[in-house]
Amino acid sequence: MPVFHRIQTKLLVIAAFTSALPASILVWQQDWSLMLSSAVVLLAVTLILLLTHLLLQPINQGLQALESGLLNFKDGEFSTLLGYKGHDELGGLCQLYNETANKLRQEKQWIYQRELMLDKVLQSSPQALLLIDDSQHLVYSNQTARELFLKGQRLQGSLLKDILATAPEALGAALSHGKDGLFSFEVADNEVQTWHLSTGRFLLNNQYHHLYLFKHLTRELSRQEVAVWKKVIRVISHELNNSLAPISSMLHSGQVLAGKLDEPRLARVFNTIDDRIRHLSEFIQGYGRFAKLPTPQPVNIDWQELINTLKLQWSFQYLGELPQLNGYADRAQLEQLLINLLKNAHESGSKPENIEVRIDLSNEGQQRGHIISINDQGKGMSETVMSNALLPFYSTKSSGTGLGLALCREIAEAHQGKISFYNRTQGGVSVKVWLPLVS
Fold first, then answer.
1. Of all helices (H) and strands (E), which one includes residue 232?
2. Would the pTM of this model clear 0.85, i.e. be above it?
């Protein structure tokens, strides 16, 4: 029998018993005194109330427990269980509630763990992420976005227009247009960064939101650019080698024939041709080394030992104290990089005593590393030279190959680092090479 039917039956019994009281009281009034009859009536009413309370108390307790549990459900709290253990329909209902609460609590914990994992992935992503609602308020941002827009400060709750007010002009324009595509802007040390913007719009909590994803493509575009140059160099080297081989063979045959003739001018001609062939072969080999730079084999670098080795080849002044933490790079490639930079510093017109080297610990975003600075007081660089200095084949020297700085950039980027140039206020150029502790 359903619980409510049982309650109804019990209440009908009580009502019938109560309705019979007046007739009983009339009979008692005939045989007993009025005082005794009143006491009996009071006792009967007390018994009725006590019986009603005893019958309804378990039901009231069960209903109150269910009400409390449902209020917890409403507030999103699933950890509270009901203690009603009656062996009736209401007890079964409470047991079902407890099973449902256990299931919902497990689901809530699983969702919470997924949210933590998703937030961890988004916060560690190299892509900058902004989520903005229709009222133009920022709802969510990751660490990369905070570094990009406000140097790590909190963005949540800010208006989009306030964020754009402090952002680089090109970055603000790209975000305002809200269209997918590439854009570039200049940051510190005359470095130009290239980013790609992806946009999306979706419905969340019955409100439209706008998602903006910024992907840093400077390094990727640089790699693609270097890959194209390497392909060009390999093609040119192949064709030149194919031509130099028969020329060298014919030159040798010509020298043999010329030896039988008494003509000194032929010897000078053949010597000049041989010298130019040798020079061209060295030129091709140099570019071949750039195009086939081996994968770095990083080891711990003792800075003092490296500085001592460099001073045997080029003179310079070391500034400050050496970092106590060792570097981490391919020893041969790092040495080649620094030799090229010191050579350029000496060829810049700077006095040797004005060439300076400094090594410091420095963080790039969240990654720890070392920054190597090489300063001179030469003629400096124009904007055109600075923007093209790292390109293969580009050189301002009449006898230059345009290989040195391009090789420096290739070595730095092969170590997941970077190289940058900027003119010093006191004259000359400062070159900074940043290398991470772990490639």
1. helix 218-258
2. no
